[in-house]
Amino acid sequence: MESKKSRVLIVGATGNLDHELAKASLNFSHPTFALVRDSAFADPNKQAKLNSLSDAGVTLLKGSLQDEESLIEAIKKVDVVICAVNSTQVLDQKLLIQVIKKAGSIKRFIPSEFGLDPDKVQISGMDYNFYSRKAEIRRLVEAEGIPYTFVSCNFYTSYLLPSLVQPELKAPPRDEIKIYGDGNIKGVFVKECDVAAFTISTLDDPLTLNKVLYLRPPGNVYSMNELADIWETKIKKKLQKMYVSEEELLHKIRETPYPGNMSFVFIYSVFIKGDQTYFDIELSGGLEGTQLYPHVKYTTISEYLDTLV
Questions:
Q1: Number of Cβ within a 10 Å radius of residue 55
Q2: Average pLDDT value over all residues in the chain
Q3: Which residue, of 65, 173, 293, 297, is most buried by count of CB atoms within 10 Å of its CB?
Q4: At residue 143, what are phi and psi to the nearest 5 degrees?
Q5: pLDDT (0 to 100) of residue 2
Q6: Chain segment 254-272, per-residue pLDDT in tens
Q7: How far is 298 from 309, CA to CA, in rounded Å?
Q8: Long-range contacts of range 24-28, CB-CB < 8 Å, 24 or more positions apart?
Q9: Are 93 and 137 in contact (CB under 8 A)?
């Protein structure tokens, strides 16, 4: 007999990832709750998303990361908490962590990371504390002894890939392409709905308890040279490749005002420093999602690029 599915709280439900997490939680037959700010119900776009989730079976709870009483009441209803707030709100998870600790009943917490591993990035001092805030939350979760899974999914396909890693463009290039560094260091892109499916797969899996889940799906790990080759094949045309050195990229980062320079910081991190792929997952004590859950179907980079041709 199949064991009972964990009850899941998604903090938020109107952003891209948290909406996908709520849908995936339902698809995997988890009783699903979403903690939603009052203001979301006044926004027509967010209201439409909430209505679709509610119609599908998600229980909507009003509250926020700043409202302790709403957090206490929400946590009483669930076994697992997943937070996917944006990077500017990462430290707002501290009250949630206190409430989880005090309740003592949550069997898994997945804090808001969903990007590169903040303990592995090699761009200290360049990222305006983007990763140090996430690392601070990791240390707090560990110190409080809260059961966790950290999800390092790398880039979403919706970030940088729609322009083939050309931040100045809105669509993939048709004539020339800038290649950062030597173009041989690999990056990873995963569609948000696939990130959600792998995340939800971990919830009742003892193997992922107090571990980092990484996503490096075969077919989704490519260098810039390889991305250019794939795109050339699809558009049946050779692109003029313009190589941008590490020094030129660093100059671009310095000369571009924040936050406009962050896309170049992330490019530097991934395609110069290799922050998504320089380490061995198993040797670092982590687990890789597609190896753990081979049944989870996902969109490859090639399939994604087909939609842009």
A1: 8
A2: 97
A3: 65
A4: -65, -35
A5: 57
A6: 999 999 999 999 999 999 9
A7: 20
A8: 24/193, 24/196, 24/197, 24/199, 24/200, 25/58, 25/82, 25/200, 26/56, 26/57, 26/58, 27/197, 27/200, 28/197, 28/200, 28/201, 28/203
A9: yes
pTM higher than 0.70 for the full model?
A: yes
What is the set of active-site residues?
Answer: 134
Residue type, 68: E
For residues 79 and 108, is the Cβ–Cβ distance under 8 A? yes
Cβ-contact 68, 99 below 8 angstroms: yes
- Cross-strand pairs, 60: 34
User: Is pLDDT of 3 > 80?
Assistant: no
SS (H, E, C) the chain: CCCCCCCEEEECCCCHHHHHHHHHHHHCCCCEEEEECHHHHHCHHHHHHHHHHHHHCCEEEECCCCCHHHHHHHHCCCCEEEECCCHHHHHHHHHHHHHHHHHCCCCEEECCCCCCCCCCCCCCCCCCCHHHHHHHHHHHHHHCCCCEEEEECCEECCCCHHHCCCCCCCCCCCCEEEEECCCCCEEEEECHHHHHHHHHHCCCCHHHCCEEEECCCCCCEEEHHHHHHHHHHHHCCCCEEEEECHHHHHHHHHHCCCCCCHHHHHHHHHHHCCCCCCCCCCCCCCEEHHHHCCCCCCCCHHHHHHCCC
List Cα–Cα distances, 118 to 122, 129, 138, in angstroms: 9, 10, 9
